Amino acid sequence: LPGRLIRMAIGWFYLSSYALSLLGVMCIILTVYWMQLWHGGFAWDGSILMFNYHPGQRPRPGMLSPAASLVYRLPRSWLGPKLPWKIGHAVLHLLAFVLTVLGLVVVFQFHSHRRTTNLYSLHSWLGIVTVFLFACQWFLGFVVFLLPWVPVWLRGLLKPIHVFFGAIILSLSVASVISGINEKLFFSLNNDTQPYSSLPSEAIFANSTGMLVVVFGLLVLYILLVSSWKRPEPGILSEGQVWGPGL
């Protein structure tokens, strides 16, 4: 029976991970398609086509960051030293942060070219808060969990806080994305021929993409919260744990 439970738990984990990967890829493809079909594609020339890089690339760090968070859920990560997985966790988050910053650079340069005020909307406030917390989370995680001279007791004290803020940053990231989708629709469909309130095809497409982003975020939280998929501490099995590092 324990062996069967182990196989079932591993099977459900990989099924959830594959579903998550499919959702993430769909969000990227649909967002790029939205910018290409309804907004003329991409260009780095100060025009509105330059701004399209912002929503067009935003789902990519949104995929990398959850992938970094789920590194410790991989069954093979439970065996052997934890350091390589810590490094992978940090590197994936760093790549996600770099892509996020590039997305911000696009917006600020576009606003500067158009002489538009920065940080005037709720979407921009959410985005800046998310990026700031992301930067603090990565830096503190690097200092506390990767540098060898930090005492074990301090790591144990800060680990729940690190995990908590990871979930908060994920939730804020999802909120930033869906508020950005809504803001983009308000700007692009604010005219007399095709108002947003008439629910044109672009609105249906973008709203559906936003719903996929929400489902993606909820699935990430679900995978992170399932106790049987968490890497156990040495000699400890949490409630609901069905396999351990020695299995």
From TrEMBL:
It comes from the Eukaryota. The chain crosses the membrane at residues 12-35, 87-110, 122-149, 161-182, 203-225. Its cofactor is heme b. The gene is Cyb561a3. It is a multi-pass membrane protein. The lineage of its organism: Eukaryota, Metazoa, Chordata, Craniata, Vertebrata. One of its GO terms (molecular function) is transmembrane ascorbate ferrireductase activity. Homodimer. Keywords: Electron transport, Endosome, Glycoprotein, Heme, Iron, Lysosome, Membrane, Metal-binding, Oxidoreductase, Translocase, Transmembrane, Transmembrane helix, Transport. This is Lysosomal membrane ascorbate-dependent ferrireductase CYB561A3. InterPro entries: CYB561/CYBRD1-like, Cyt_b561/ferric_Rdtase_TM. Coiled coil: none annotated. It is found in: Late endosome membrane; Lysosome membrane. Its EC number is 7.2.1.3. Residues 19-225 form the Cytochrome b561 domain. Transmembrane reductase that uses ascorbate as an electron donor in the cytoplasm and transfers electrons across membranes to reduce iron cations Fe(3+) into Fe(2+) in the lumen of the late endosome and lysosome. Reduced iron can then be extruded from the late endosome and lysosome to the cytoplasm by divalent metal-specific transporters. It is therefore most probably involved in endosomal and lysosomal cellular iron homeostasis. It catalyses: Fe(3+)(out) + L-ascorbate(in) = monodehydro-L-ascorbate radical(in) + Fe(2+)(out) + H(+). It is an enzyme of class 7 (translocase). It holds the Pfam family Cytochrom_B561. One of its GO terms (cellular component) is late endosome membrane.
